[in-house]
Specification:
Distance between the termini of chain A: 34 Å
CATH topology of the largest domain in chain B: MetI-like fold
CATH class of the largest domain in chain B: Mainly Alpha
Number of strands of chain A: 2
Largest interface: A-B, 93 and 97 residues
Oligomer: heterodimer
Shape of chain B: globular
Order of helices and strands of chain A: HHHEEHHHHHHHHH
Structural class of chain A: mainly alpha
CATH topology of chain A: MetI-like fold
Strand content of chain A: under 5%
Radius of gyration of chain A: 27 Å
Largest sheet of chain A: 2 strands, antiparallel
Chain lengths: ~350, ~325
């Protein structure tokens, strides 16, 4: 710009970018390009090879001829049922846990609660303060357990599902209700869904608590001051305001659960089933598990390849649609928040 | 506006509902909390026979897992994982080595790429571009690991083999590359957060002293966000150790004691995934697999806790200075 002549002499040094600088910045930018390239290579490859597979037959017929022909209808239905049961369990429980943690446990930390308890020596109502201290401790322990649970490998959830749900709970139910006949003590829809629900629980809890945190205390206080009860405040003020955040967290959690295979390997996914699951004790086919089977145990790799790509495409489309919705809602609320400030 | 709350219901009923809901939330919260602790407790319980049960201890014990070597000259003959043979050999060494090899390659891919991309996005990308880059890289995190495993197994392995001429199609390079893709979003988002959290005054001071934006980024912002990079490293490590499907599909599934990155491998997680389906309940093999799970649990627990602590400390410090 020509009108710049009055600018002090330091500024040009900041504006000027020597050639070497530009090269370095370009190199940093290249890493972004590389990552995006890898992403598009994967997605492009799957889209090109997989989209062509889509046909009414592919999504409405069961597999035939040892998985080398036919469609993936039972896997789609199985995945949908699994994800629905998982959602019905994980989202209400996750949201309720977060509400409990954020709205019902005391806002102060254990240290302050302890000091208050100590200071109340000899006064009435000490028991209440002690209880308050205990519940702050519980809240802290739960928060760190939730944070850690989010990082626990998904295969460990599979171990837990097998050891706890199938053998301990399922086996126990069989002994008590069916005289030792195996009904509940094997992999099935409900155990797999519960295992996955546990896996998604931390995502839902963390996201919901974060959303609750964005609701200003003044709003709650105003509601309470007008005579609303705590539940009315939560129901009418807090939850509606936090809804976008809760929705995002829920959707991201569900999409993670929909794509996970490791936890359902031993808890109920079936190699091939000629029928759809009808009861909670039935096994089920699953898109992700189907991908694993087709790519590692196919008798004829070349013949299954088109079906394999088609299955991956459907699975990816499902998780991406969920994910995209979540990311978009979050991006919208974030920019709204920024404007609001 | 008419308040339907206070006028439609008598106060006593409203307070009864309030008390009921308090009970519901407390109950739901406590149940969820109980399950979370149950996972910690139960995985551990199933692996306890390794220490307690004399029958199980016979074949599955800490010595067999970590120390005992078979007679033989090479590493491959000395440390063997063959849990179902007539004379079970349960050395964790080949599996640990496989896990570390894949993790190493994965981190070698993800850390430099993720940090560089985050630095570019935070310091040089125009705002509009940044709003595009971030969600797109988040999409990468949304790809299920079974899909990455499939891609590495069917497509990437052939490309990598053609390019470098490896003897085996499936090896640590191939599996690690795919693993790296899964780790990049973790590294990117944590370090990007770290870079943007560096107070503006740092940059202003550096620029006012006459340094260029690149000098500012490399010599001021990068060191200031060192804890974030450490946290990203630790958390990516935790994720890599536990990742299952990618390694199960693209690792080659060969439990051999080898330091060569071009050899096929088998990780701890993939071993659980491959063998738990056919294991005899209560056997030494069963306890050994749960012990592996406990091991993964403990390692990821430590790395996640370390990462979280560093991030929290950093946030506090930045808020104080910002």
């Amino acid at each position: 710009m020509s009108g710049d002549s009055w600018v002090p002499s330091v500024l040009p040094a900041y504006r000027r970018r020597p050639l070497l600088d530009r090269l370095w910045v370009a190199l940093l930018g290249l890493s972004v390009v590389l990552i995006l390239l890898a992403l598009f290579l994967i997605l492009g490859n799957i889209a090109i090879n997989g989209a062509g597979q889509l046909s009414w037959e592919f999504i409405s017929q069961p597999p035939r001829e040892g998985l080398t022909a036919g469609g993936i209808y039972p896997a789609i239905v199985g995945t949908a049922m699994l994800v629905m049961i998982m959602t019905v369990v994980a989202v209400p429980f996750g949201v309720a846990t977060a509400v409990y943690l954020h709205e019902y446990t005391p806002a102060e930390g254990p240290r302050l609660a302890w000091v208050r308890f100590r200071a109340s020596a000899g006064r009435k109502g000490r028991a209440k303060l002690l209880l308050r201290f205990v519940s702050t401790l519980l809240a802290v322990a739960t928060r760190s357990a939730v944070a850690n649970l989010a990082g626990v490998p998904s295969i460990v959830f599979g171990l837990f599902g097998l050891g706890f749900f199938i053998q301990f709970v399922g086996g126990g139910m069989d002994r008590a209700l069916h005289g030792g006949e195996i009904v509940w003590g094997q992999g099935n829809l409900i155990w797999a869904a519960l295992t996955l629900a546990l896996l998604t629980l931390p995502t839902v809890i963390v996201a919901t608590e974060e959303a609750l945190r964005t609701v200003a205390w003044e709003q709650r206080e105003a509601s309470l001051a007008l005579g609303a009860t705590r539940w009315e405040t939560i129901r009418r003020i807090v939850l509606p305001a936090a809804m976008p955040g809760i929705l995002t967290g829920g959707i991201l959690g569900i999409s993670r659960g929909a794509g996970e295979v490791a936890p359902i390997l031993f808890t109920g996914a079936a190699y091939y089933l000629p029928y759809l699951p009808e009861r909670l004790t039935d096994q089920f086919m699953h898109l992700g598990y189907h991908v694993l089977i087709l790519s590692t145990q196919s008798p004829d790799v070349e013949a299954t390849k088109p079906i394999l790509f088609g299955t991956v495409f459907v699975l990816l489309a499902l998780t991406f649609l969920l994910n995209l919705t979540g990311v978009l809602i979050r991006a919208r609320t974030r920019s709204k928040m920024r404007e609001g400030r | 506006m008419r308040s339907e709350l206070s006028q439609s219901r008598p106060a006593r009923l409203r307070h009864a509902i309030d008390g009921l809901m308090t009970g519901v939330f407390t109950g739901a919260g406590l149940i969820a909390i109980a399950f979370i602790f149950l996972i910690f407790f139960f995985t551990l319980r199933e692996s306890l026979p390794v220490f307690i049960n004399p029958e199980v201890k016979e074949e599955a014990n800490l010595r067999a897992f970590f120390i005992e070597a078979q007679p033989g000259d090479s590493m491959i003959d000395r440390y063997i994982w063959q849990p179902t043979s007539a004379n079970p050999k349960m050395s964790f060494i080949p599996l640990i080595l496989g896990t570390l090899k894949a993790t190493l390659v994965g981190l070698l891919v993800a850390i430099p790429l993720g940090v560089a991309a985050a630095l570019f996005t935070a310091e040089f990308a125009p705002r509009r571009l940044r709003e595009v880059i971030k969600p797109v890289i988040e999409l990468l995190a949304g790809i299920p690991s079974v899909v990455l495993g499939f891609f590495a197994l069917i497509v990437l392995a052939t490309w990598v083999q053609d390019l470098f001429g490896f003897t085996y199609r499936l090896n640590a390079w191939n599996a690690g590359l795919a693993l790296g893709l899964a780790l990049i979003p973790i590294v990117f988002s944590i370090t990007e957060d770290g870079f943007t959290a560096v107070p503006r005054s740092y940059r202003d001071a550096s620029l006012a002293l006459g340094s260029t934006r690149l000098q500012t980024a490399i010599k001021v912002v990068l060191p200031a966000a060192a804890p974030a990079i450490f946290a990203a490293f630790v958390l990516a490590f935790g994720r890599a150790i536990g990742e299952t499907m990618i390694l199960l599909m693209a690792g080659g599934n060969a439990a051999i004691t080898s330091f060569d990155l071009a050899d096929p491998l088998r990780t701890l997680s993939a071993t659980i995934a491959a063998e738990l389906g056919e294991v005899v309940f209560g056997s030494g093999h069963y306890a050994a697999l749960f012990f592996m799970g406990t091991l993964l649990f403990v390692i990821t627990f430590i790395s996640n806790t370390a990462g979280e602590l560093v991030i929290r400390a950093m946030r506090k410090r930045m808020q104080g200075e910002g």
